[in-house]
Amino acid sequence: MSLLARPIAELARGLRSRDFSSVELLESALAEVAREDGELGAFLRTTAGPALVQAQRADRLLSDDPASASPLLGIPVAYKDVLCTKGVETTAGSRILEGFIPPFSATAVERMEAAGAVSLGKLNCDEFAMGSSNENSAFQATRNPWAADRVPGGSSGGSAVAVAARLVSATLGTDTGGSIRLPASFCGVVGVKPSYGRVSRYGLIAFASSLDQIGPLTKTVEDAALVMQVIAGVDPRDSTSSPAPSGDLLGALKSGVAGLRVGIPKEYLAMAIEAGVRGVFDQSATLLAAAGAQLVDVSLPSTEYALAAYYVIAPAEVSSNLARMDGVRFGPGFGTAANLMEAYERARHIGFGPEVRRRIALGTYVLSSGYYDAYYLRAQKVRTLVAKDFERVFKEVDCVISPTAPTTAFRMGERVADPLAMYATDLLTLPANLAGVSGISVPAGFADGLPVGLQVLGPYMGEATCFRVAAAVEEMAQVWQIRPGTKGVPEAAG
Amino acid sequence: MATEDTNTSDTRGIELPQVARLSRLARLGLSPEELERLGVQLAAIVSAVGKLAEADTDHVDPTAQVGGLTNVLRHDVVVDGLSQEDALANAASKEAGLLRVPAIQ
Questions:
Q1: Out of A117, A326, A370, A470, which could bridge A112 as a Cys pair, Cβ 3.0 to 4.6 Å?
Q2: Is B21 inside a domain boundary?
Q3: What b-and-e string marks burial along B62-75, b requiring 16 or more CB atoms within 10 Å of the CB?
C-alpha cells in the first residue's frame, strides 16, 4: 500500500525515524500521480522540479533538528489553482489567466511552505471557483475516484480527488458556498470551511470576497487540524483576517462529545434529501447520542431564503471582482483590437466560460440602478437574518449537524444544462458562508457505494467544536481508511 | 428552493436589449445567440431569487461583511511593493516599462 495511505502524524514519525525520507515520500507521491491522475484529472500541472528541492531541504532539516520541525515538514501537498504560487502558473481554471505566473504566493501557501510542506503542483477547479461539479473548468474534467462517470463535486474538486485517491496527504481548497465541504462529501475526505477571517485570503484569486475562505482537505480530522494550525491566523496583508485565537484543535480531537449539545436544524432535514444520505445521517446522529451527545431539534427559519440571497450577493461580488480580468496586466491578451472597448470585450469573451459570464451578467443586473434595492440590498438584509438565526441557535446548542449535501456525487453532465439544479447542490452548505460561521464535512458512511459526508457547523470562530464532533464521528464511523477501489465498500448505508 | 422554474422560464423579465446592455456594461462581448441563451437563463435565475421578496426584512439592517472588524489600520510605514518589472511581467503588450493598450476610440 502506498505511503500516502497513512495519516500525516504517522508519516511525520516515519520521516523522523528515517523509515523513509521526504524525497522517497515525494517519489512515491509522484508515482501515484503518474499512475492514477491520467484518468482522474486532479492536477492541472505538477511541479516535480521545485518539489524535489523542497523535499531535499526537508530531509536536511529533519536530520538537523527533527524535534522542533513542523508536523508538515516533508509532507506532500498540493494547492487549488485559485491560490497564487510564486513562479508557478496559476489559472483559476480560466482561459483568461492562462500563462499567468504570479509574482507572489498566497499567505496560506507561504505558511505551508514555511512549515516545510512539499507541493506537487496545482489542482483543477471550476473556473474562478464557480461551480459545484468541477465541470466548469476551462481545461479538463476531473473524475470522482469512487465512480469514474460521476463528478467529484466542486469547486475544489481536484483538491478532494487528490486526497481521496491518496496522491498527496493534504490540499488547500476554497469554500465560498460549499466548495470545500461538498467535494469532500462526494469524495469521502475531510474538508474544513473555517470561520470568515480565520485564514488570510491574501493571494487568493477572489470570487466573492465577503464569503471566500481557504481551508484544508485531508484524509483525517487530525490531518485537517495539523494544516489549520499552520495556515490560520491574522495577516497584515488581509485586513479581514481575524486576530481571534484558534483554540486547541488537536486537544479538541480527544475531548469526546459527552455532554455536548448537538442541534439538528429541522429546515435542513425538511429538504429533498436522498434516502441513502438520510440513512447515513440518522446513523451518525444515533452514534453521537450513544456517545453522550444531547441531540436537540433547532430551527433556522431563514434557510428558505439563503439560496436566493447567496445567488444575489455572490454574483454581485463576482461582477466587481472580475472587472480586473481585462487582458491588460495578465492573461493571453487581446490581439489586434481596434479600440480599448473591443480589446476588453475580446479578452473577456475568449477568456470566460458560460458560468462565469452568467454570474457576471447576473451580478451586473442586481447591482444596476432600479434593481439594487429589490435584489442586492434585500439580499444583504436576508443575510442578516441568516446570521441571526445561527447566533440564536448557538446559544441553545454547541453545534449543528446535517448531511453535507442532499445527494451523493451525481453523474457528469447531469446538471450542466440546468444552472438552478446545480446551484441547489449547495443548499445545505451556503448558509454557513452567509453567516461566516465555522464548518467541517467528515466522511460518515456510504450510500450505494458512494461516500456521504456529515456536516458539522459551529459558531463564528468555533472551529474547535466542529473538530471535536467530527473526530468523534470519524472514530465511530470507521470509514476514512476505506479508499476508492477497496473491496468491501458497503452497498448501502447502515 | 423550487427548481421547476428552470424549464418554465419567463423571459419577459429580461428583454434582449437589456441583456445586450448587461453584456456591454460588463464587457462580455457576447454574440446574438449567446445573448438570447443568457437572457433565458437569467430570467429563470432572477425569477428564482425573486423569493427574496417574501422575506420580512422590515427593520433589518443589511450585512455587507460578517467578520465584524472595523478600522483595520497599520502604521504608516513604507514597505516594498511589486517592482515595475514584476508588475509588468504578465502583460501581453508593453512598451518602455508601461502597459500598451489600443486607443479608447
A1: A117
A2: yes
A3: ebeebbeeeeeeee
Distance, in Å, from the CA atom of A468 to the CA atom of A473, rounded to the nearest integer, reads 9
List of domains in chain A: 3-300+389-477 (3.90.1300.10), 303-388 (no CATH)
The three-state secondary structure class of A456 is: strand
Interatomic CA distance for residues A168 and A185, integer angstroms = 18
Max mean pLDDT range (A195-204, B6-15, B74-83): A195-204
Q: Which three cell numbers stand for residue A225?
A: 487540524
Residue B11 lies in a domain: yes
Q: Is B16 on the interface with A (CB under 8 A)?
A: no
How high is the ipTM of this complex?
0.91
Which residues in chain B are closer than 8 Å to A460, comparing Cβ atoms?
66
Label residue A1 by pLDDT band (50, 70, 90).
low
Taking CB atoms and an 8 Å limit, are B92 and A380 in contact across chains?
no
Scan residues 40-99 of B and list those with Cβ closer than 8 Å to A. 41-42, 44-46, 48-55, 57, 60-67, 69, 72, 74, 82, 86-93, 99
CB contact under 8 A, B66 and A342: no
Peptide linkage before A155 cis (omega within 30 of 0): yes
pLDDT, tens digit, for every residue of A45-64?
Answer: 999 999 999 999 999 999 99
Q: What predicted TM-score, i.e. pTM, was given to this entire model?
A: 0.95
- Give yes or no: A132 in active site: no
Catalytic residue among A22, A137, A179, A441: A179
Residue B104 lies in a domain: no
The answer to whether residue B25 sits within a structural domain is: yes
**From CA A259, how far away is CA A261, in angstroms rounded?**
6
Identify the domain containing residue B31 by its residue range: 1-55
Q: Which residues contact A387 (CB under 8 A, 6 or more apart)?
A: A434, A435, A436, B63, B66
Q: How many domains does chain B have?
A: 1
